[in-house]
Amino acid sequence: MTPHMLTRSLDRSATIFLAVVAACGILIPLSNLLLPAGSFLQVPTYLVALWGKYVCYAILALSIDLIWGYCGILSLGHGAFFALGGYAMGMYLMRQIGTRGVYGNPVLPDFMVFLNYSKLPWTWYGFDMFWFAALMVLVVPGLLAFCFGWLAFRSRVTGVYLSIITQAMTYALLLAFFRNDFGFGGNNGLTDFKDILGFNVQAEGTRAALFALSCLALIAGFLICRAIVSSKLGKVLIAVRDAESRTRFLGYRVESYKLFVFTVSACMAGVAGALYVPQVGIINPSEFAPGNSIEAVIWVAVGGRGTLVGAALGAVVVNYAKTFFTSGVLAPYWLFMLGALFILVTLLLPKGIVGTFNAWWDSSKEKRAATMASAAAEDGVAEPKMAE
Amino acid sequence: MPAHLSARLCSLALSFFLIAFALPALAGPFEDAVAKFANDDYSDTDEAIGVVASSGNPLAFPIISALQDGRLMADPDSKKVYVTGTDGKSIDAVTGQPVATVPDSASAVRLNNRLRRSVDAAIGSLTLQSPDVGTRLQAAQSVFKSHEETALEAVDGALAKETNKSVKAALGDARAAILLFKPDATEVEKLEAVATLKARGDQEALALLTGMGDQPASVTKAAASAIGSIQNSLAIWSMVQNAWYGLSLGSVLLLAAIGLAITFGVMGVINMAHGEMVMIGAYTTFVVQEVIRTRYPGLFDYSLLIAVPLAFVVAGAIGVLIERSIIRFLYGRPLETLLATWGLSLVLQQAVRTMFGPTNREVGNPSWMSGAFELGQITITYNRLWILVFTLAVFAILLAMLRYTALGLEMRAVTQNRRMAASMGIATSRVDALTFGLGSGIAGIAGVALSQIDNVSPNLGQSYIIDSFMVVVFGGVGNLWGTLVGAFTLGIANKFLEPVAGAVLGKIAILVLIILFIQKRPRGLFALKGRAVEA
After folding, report:
1. Which chain B residues are closer than 8 Å to A148 by Cβ?
2. What are B233-258's pLDDT values in tens digits?
3. Where exactly are the structural domains of chain A?
4. ipTM of the complex, rounded to two decimals
5. Which of B5, B265, B415, B439 qualifies as a FRET site for B95, CA 20 to 30 Å off?
6. Which of B322, B328, B338 to mutate to test the interface with A (most CBs of A within 10 A)?
7. Is the Cβ–Cβ distance between B29 and B94 less than 8 Å?
8. How far apart are CA B450 and CA B464, in angstroms?
9. How far apart are CA A101 and CA B94, in angstroms?
10. Phi, psi for residue B108 in degrees, rounded to 5
């Protein structure tokens, strides 16, 4: 990525967004660690973990916006990639427990001892090393997305058909991971983590570091997405979104473009999941539930699809609202609100918050320019000719 | 297991518990009669013989024949009675459970000449020659199970007089079972017995043949081939059973998917709230039954007949309302429709949860839908059978409606070419609303049927939505026949995979197969061709 490309790809909202995320990533951990507990400006640890969760959701939303907003692929199974990344990280964390588990087995995690495993399944090999787990966080979701996308895009499965089979994919994984003999902890999932890279996952310092890291990942993910969508490749993606057949007739290999962006997006979702797991302390098969993936899509819709900033914003806003409403007396009404959000956003706010705001800003700017121009014309100054 | 069934089982278990612990005197007449043997009183014994012999209990025959041979041991202290077999092993006469040793205080139940005659009569005629066909059949089956050789004479006598076909067959089987285990039966008799058992061909015959012990070589050989052929026929029956389960599952899938085939297939609208229409139908059934229970209990058997049209109207009306208020603004934007209807499904679920509570509600089976009957070696429950019939009826009516009514004609016209249809004067927006209402209404009546076999809870619809979409996508959009074939193919494939791979793995395999199938035929089994494809 050249510096020129970077500057070109950053507009006003992107700059503000990056500044806000960077500021949060630095200030929140600092305030949590340095200020005395109970002080007015100190951010309590539970809030750090909570907002860390939102940041991970924001990365997931970015990955969905990349394919849905810019390439028209509505995946209803992105939660699967998120969960797979989470499981890869969870497996590393499980193996770090070592002899501190309830059964004290140095190699086998507790649930395997409980289920009478005699040796470690091959799927768990290598997960005692962080670099390997970190690689798998990218490789496993990426590979699944590549294979799935290769089959689907090559045979031109598009639109709602693709949505439905991605949903079937995550549903199949949900069923598989719920099985005890599948070897990934069954319905209890993976939990009771102790260490990450030698640091206690419960410690305030680790939590603050994970939060800062999540913000960093969000910034990196955002820059990657920006670079993709503002490059020539990005223009082709938008062409595919708006007129797939026409793009194909122009000689572009549509399926290759789609496959590339789908795989990148899945890797991003995997990273989001991997950062999510140590912060919430558990990963279980319910993360694969089709409902979760659809909910992630609505974050993007609320924030504004095809804006990237909006996706991240939508994820934070909707999840903040969810936390706020489900913890109070309004809890029974949360699903009404979420459902209404789905309906109202698609009906009344199809561009989302950021898209609507941008449209309003642009039109008001035009209006200002127009009034200034007409004022100038009345003053008798010749209007500059518009270049075609 | 449906909630009402488990509730019934619970109450059944509870009543057993009460009987067993609180009121021993309430035990059945058979148990009372057996206890009388321990009284060592001739007239009591006589009475007991009569009751036991006519009880139809499978232990009746061993008890009476043991009495005849002086092998019926009674303990006057505990009033317990034991049957000691010819091989010296003993069982409890009431429960049939083997007992290690008979207490020393027990002695053989004594007989006098009068009683001996009544024992003979009991064995010979009271059961096997009873005027009641059911009793004779039970007696013959009891002899078949016990295959005591002492009964051979009585069986032969009964066989000579028997006119009822099924009793005769049962007697023949009983005779064969006795001969097979009779040490001094001739080889020819034993070979005949093996052939008879082979013809019977069920699990019990298989058990007798595999457990028959030492036999002449020719008999062993014949038995081995009989075992092979019985196993083959059992394998075929289990395939028939799987096929039936598959048809049954297929009918459920078809019922859930058929409304979707209209909204998604014909209109191209992704209705993620389709499952909630099914749920609404199920709750309509619940409300109807609730009203009937409290006001008109006599009408309970007609509750489903009332619920079907009502569910159609309720779900259909809600469908029209949804189409007018949400969907019509989203035509041509299928992905947005998907999200909006998903949101709608959350709202509907939560609304039902608020109104009826989050737990399962009880919906009962009317009498004509409960129970089961045997067909060959498989059991068919009436509710599954009725659902299959009902599904096919709904399918046929829908097909006829699309083919022969004015609305059907208009619907097909709008599907094939919306603009042209509009130019011909068809009010396309009215047709859209009615089509969506029709699809929702059919989902509603699917809910009535599904309330009979599934839990009626706010999550009822969610469990069907992915499966229904799979059926429609697999069968091909815009073609009801595709939906029919798709539903039954998936149902049967699922049930045949289940015994091999297990229920969950089978389901995963089906999903993976569909995902792969879509790659091969992106528009399903029966795809529309021509211009409609790009629309």
Report:
1. 515
2. 888 888 888 899 899 889 989 988 88
3. 3-366
4. 0.83
5. B5
6. B338
7. no
8. 10
9. 53
10. -65, 140
